Amino acid sequence: MNDLIRMPVDGREAEPEESRTQTFTPSDEAVGERLDRYLTTVCDLTRAAAVRLIESGAVVLMSGEGKGRRSVKVDKNTKLKWGDEVIVTFPEAEEYDVIPEDIPLDVVYEDADIIVVNKPTGMVVHPAPGNYTGTLVNALLYHCGDSLSGVGGVKRPGIVHRIDKDTSGLLVVAKNDEAHVALSAQLKTHTVSRVYHAVCVGNVKEDEGTLTYPIGRNPADRKKMAAFPVGTPTGDSGGAIRSAVTHYTVMERFPTGCRWGQPFTYVTCELETGRTHQIRVHMAATGHPLLGDPLYGGEGTRFGKAVGALLHGQMLHAKELKLIHPRTGKEMHFECPLPEDFEKVLERLRRES
Length: 353
Description:
Blueprint: E1 21-24, H1 35-42, H2 47-55, E2 59-63, E3 70-72, E4 85-89, E5 107-110, E6 114-119, H3 136-144, E7 168-174, H4 177-188, E8 193-201, E9 208-211, E10 215-218, E11 221-227, E12 241-242, E13 246-254, E14 264-271, H5 278-285, H6 302-306, E15 316-324, E16 331-335, H7 340-352
Parallel strand pairs: 7-15
Antiparallel strand pairs: 1-4, 2-3, 2-4, 5-6, 6-7, 8-14, 8-15, 9-13, 10-11, 10-12, 13-14, 15-16
């Protein structure tokens, strides 16, 4: 047994590191929630993976009080009750069939539990159809060897959160299962702070604001996400439409110039939630898509065409990351510089607006 400090996660009593069994005690907010949806949040699993665990018998639910406490038969629709305990036995991680690749990594920080990297623009985080090599996971498998969490499954070893292919910046990766579960819980409770820098098309009039449009799949194009009206019913534990909160602050405005015909705005965006394409969708919903964004209306500007060699998709960079270290409980703050091409775009806007 090692001397790992056990951090309570959502009422969980952590198991020894060598065990792949985890016990979770649902919070008051989770009472009444479906079992499969609960597992997607506390274990950072896809819905399909949670259902597979349940159907394989790997999930035990202890319910009742005193002498009447017992394990009950469960399925994906089982509703959680106050006082329940959910015991999950994770299968051994399957051998990953993607070859580790000696791809240089910009490592900002690393220890036995986590690794923080500055992902470059153009790198996919984990393998998917069309991108089976050259991903961050390929690079991590080479760099870290066997020391990556298996909680995310063979497709996403160690991956706690993601950023888009053409978004650059900071990403934290878990090097063991307990770190993975603890960081996932922090993301769920918004104790992880992620600050992005972005350039938007148009003049964002308010100096700061909070965007709360729920986000879900675009019904007309499944490759895109869409913002829905505030008040749209959401299912935060896996529903088709999920709540989303982005706080933005204007850092700099580039007024309309005779040459480019439209203004641009340099903003920071802090995520309270982490939905797919959240900043891109939220800013586009306000009429200010990110410069260069091919999905949400940021392409085709005169300025964008003029600096085309400097644009590699949307102008978005994950610049700051704050988290609680899963072993020590210490708050950690990481920053990384803007990419060189991002800086050059800003310089040109300052010079020519």
